[in-house]
Structure formats: C-alpha cells, structure tokens
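Work Package 3 (structural annotation) set out to generate three-dimensional models for the target panel prioritized at the project kickoff. During this period the team completed the workflow that converts sequence records into discrete structure tokens, so that structures can be stored uniformly alongside our sequence database. As a representative example, we reproduce one entry of 221 residues exactly as it appears in the project archive.
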Amino acid sequence: MSRKTSNIPQSPTAEDYQAAAEANAEDIFDRDNPFALFADWFSDAKRKEPNDPNAMALATADETGLPDVRMVLLKDFDAEGFVFYTNLESAKGLQIGANPQAALCFHWKSLRRQIRLRGAVVPVSPDEADAYYASRARDSRIGAWASKQSRPLESRFALEKAVAKEAARFGLGPVPRPPHWSGFRLKPRHFEFWRDRPFRLHDRLVFDLRETGWAATRLYP
C-alpha cells in the first residue's frame, strides 16, 4: 500500500542544486587541525544562523547500551574539548555517569553544514562550573535548585511552587551552585565535517586522533 508523502519536502530541483553550488563554491577544508576548522565554521554560524548557533545534539547511551539524544547548548570549547552543563541527576547526567562516552552533532541549516564528533566525557572542574553558574540569570540559578530534572512532574503548578519556595529560601542573598548541577567536557577523538553539495555529492572530511596527532581523510558522500 502506498503512503502519502505530500507533507514531506520534495527533492531539490536542478535549479536548487545550481544555486547551492554557487553558494558553496569555495574550499572550506583548508585547515589541518579540527579545532581550528570548527572555530572557522562556528564563527560563520554565529554570523548567519538565525537561532542558537551553539545548539548541538548530544547523544549518550545508558548502561544497557540503549542510545538517547537531545539538544543542548555548547557553553565553551577549546583544544581540550566541548563543554555543556546539566543536572547530574537528569537522564543524560546518569547516562554519562554509567557510560562516559558521547557524540555531538552541530547542524547549521543556513550554511548547509554539519559537524559530528565523539569521544570520552569528563567532568569540568568545580571552579569552572562555579564560574559559569554565577554567570547565569538569577532565576535560572534558582530554577536549577527547584527542578528535579527528568523525573515525573505532577503539574506545572508543582514546578512553580518549587521555584517560589527556593526563591523565598534564598531571598536577596547569593544563590550557590547546587551539588547536583555541573558540567561535562567531551574530549573528541573523531570529527566529521560535512558540507552540502549538488546532487548529493557532498563534501566530507574526517579527523581521527592518532599517536602522532590528527589524521585527516576525505570520505565518499
């Protein structure tokens, strides 16, 4: 039995492909270090992506190996890795605790580019977590105390009541970082940079960390 696909976007036309080819004509793989190439692409995304250029899909797996994925925000990156923050008692926090490996995916639709990376996950230092937590809006800091992230919530009112309770508890005083809230750093061992090209003949460049440093390889699309 055939299925209706009228709500699914149609494949690009030849004219669409030609426009994409003209927009993506330059060589953008002119780096021999994946962190430098990421910085270039992220800089482009911050200029051209309309919403949350630092949004990334974070994939983890639980102790049985069952995968899970959700969108989070990149909060810092350097040659040591890519940092995000969470409630350590959330689903992702528990999964990382049981299996400290993960993958990230950035997709910048406005640029027609994607970056995937994967590697081990390690906690950030307490000082690093404290510094980022202190930079957050006060209501967000209070929310971190009030929310039992990923656990059943009986009603929206229950959450609002918990927030009000924590706000009253701290009053006008400082709101310290909760012991169950911190950050993780994904230390990549593998990158893949992908760029849309006409007729599905995309550009793909991977970097793998070896004993001698980063090794680059192009892949068939």
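The radius of gyration is 21 Å.
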